[in-house]
């Protein structure tokens, strides 16, 4: 997670099952090789690290995250593994790792033109970089967030807050192919049933996309901002008869083998 945002582990794990499913799907696509050392960069509260360790029994597994709150939660959850507070942009480990996992984190990290080659360079020969990133900036939840941020008394404070990483599958493939023996890229849309209608959708994004916006607002502004967002979400994601909202969530996956 990025260091500029106050990530909250308790909020993030409210939807742990839904957030962990993509990393399990990602790990299932990693080629079966002998993995001795693996690292989870942007490990959050440790749910992805737990999935990584289950996939690789016997491997030396570690994790890092820029959020001290997330690292504290990860250490409590998985005391047998080593976790450190570190920003991916300043991560100076030389490798060589058999597997680098980056689950739902690199969308917050700038300059992918430099970042992805740097991560590949930390792989051992035959090692794998496994990446999953939300690919949902064009979904209503994000579009409404941008519109509300730009239209209100908070507009100046929120200018440029939202992540704007918009590279597509072909962009990543073209840059990784010269560096790797194999590159596998795919996109999946998950449909998460959230009980509680629009309020549940807002709670979901409080653990991710909403965090930078809320951190930039004064306490007096947060409630009216969230109310406007909640009302817009209710119109964009009408609840089913039982009150459930089916939240579409596209994600981009990459497995690159050095």
What are the defining features of this structure?
single chain; 258 residues; alpha/beta; seven-stranded mixed β-sheet; 7 strands; globular
Structure report:
The chain is an alpha/beta fold and 258 residues long. It contains 11 helices and 7 strands. The protein has helices spanning 9-12, 16-28, 47-55, 68-77, 112-121, 140-150, 155-158, 169-176, 197-206, 211-216, 219-236; strands spanning 37-41, 60-65, 82-85, 97-103, 123-134, 182-195, 244-257. Helix 6 (140-150) crosses helix 11 and helix 9 crosses helix 11 (219-236). The radius of gyration is 18 Å and the shape is globular.
Strand content: 15-25%
Total strands: 7
Helix proportion: 25-40%
For the largest beta-sheet, the strand count, sense and barrel status come to: 7 strands, mixed
Rg on CA atoms, Å: 18 Å
The assigned structural class equals alpha/beta
End-to-end separation in angstroms reads: 25 Å
**Average predicted local confidence, pLDDT:** 92
Silhouette: globular
Strand order across the largest sheet: 3-2-1-4-5-7-6
